[in-house]
Design goal:
Helix content: 10-25%
CATH architecture: Beta Barrel
Largest sheet: 7 strands, antiparallel
Distance between the termini: 36 Å
Number of helices: 1
Shape: elongated
Strand content: over 45%
CATH class: Mainly Beta
Amino acid sequence: MLPTYFQTYSVFLMIICLLLTHLYIDMVLQKFGIHFGLGADLTREEDVLGGSNLVAKSVLYDARFGIDKIIPITKRLNFIVGLDAIAGNAKNSSSSTGFDLTTSSFKLGGGPTIRIQYHLNDRVVFMTEGLFYFIRTKGEREEVDPRTGIALYTNTTHRFTIAEPRALFIGFKF
């Protein structure tokens, strides 16, 4: 079983990648910027003590790419408007004494973002962001029951996601 901090650590790496890339390109282009982020989460859980021999696995991948327009408010404060594209893939499987369940999904979407960026000094930057995404997800679900056989279901969902600023990102320029 992977340690419980693994998921948090992988998300932390994605945030660092996003900020370092954004800050580097921001310095080159001055008023425009591009950014990207990659994230992954791998988990495996086993429960042999409960008598069910439950094994659950999860693999998630996400990618994000965006273009930003930087609007200076003061010497240290910037307002940033942007457009992001996102893609992701997820696969979850679990099995227990002959019963198997596998779900997989692929998401694709994007939308506008707003960010506020504060330069503490020449090397340290604080930033927060809000976003409005439209996401299309196509998924499959396969159930294996030793008594009834295999059942396969497919679905497609469309949704709007609004995320208000909830995190404070800290960036370092090198």
